[in-house]
Design goal:
Length: 154
């Protein structure tokens, strides 16, 4: 039995920049119109950036919250889940006949971020600080969870 190899010519394809991005957006837009109650647009929720780090003594969480008032931030720990909620109020600017916006990207509205912490934290000694638009939360580890040096007997 012999197999015949067919020599195929390579296809010429004109690359379309952002083709994958465009098709993904079309796909999302198509399904979003069925999920929304308001003219095909989903209610937008703010997205905030969060860093979670661990040291020998504690877990440190930093959240970027520019333009948010301290009174509009709520922090809770429940069943070892740290939840940060907040609200950025809409900026009320008077209409200016001479000002024409070309792009508006700053969101207003609510946000919520959660992170599950291990059982080995001391929730009662959790401390939070808000400075220059950055929320820093320190959740200390319980004494059982802290690393201990074991002495070796001679």
């Amino acid at each position: 039995m012999t197999k015949t190899l067919v020599n195929r010519q390579p296809r010429t394809m004109t690359p379309l920049p952002f083709r994958n991005l465009m098709s993904r957006n079309l796909f999302n837009d198509f399904f979003n119109q069925f999920l929304s109650e308001t003219d095909g647009e989903l209610p937008q929720m703010m997205s905030v950036s969060m860093d979670v780090a661990e040291t020998d003594q504690a877990f440190e969480i930093q959240v970027d919250l520019p333009g948010i008032d301290l009174d509009d931030i709520d922090i809770q720990i429940d069943n070892n889940t740290l939840t940060i909620r907040g609200q950025r109020n809409e900026q009320t600017e008077e209409k200016d006949e001479e000002k024409q916006y070309h792009r508006v990207e700053r969101y207003s509205g609510s946000f919520a971020r959660s992170v599950v912490l291990p059982n080995s934290v001391n929730e009662d000694e959790t401390a939070a600080e808000f400075k220059d638009g950055v929320l820093k939360i320190v959740v200390p580890k319980s004494d059982e969870a802290k690393p201990r040096k074991i002495a070796i007997n001679r």
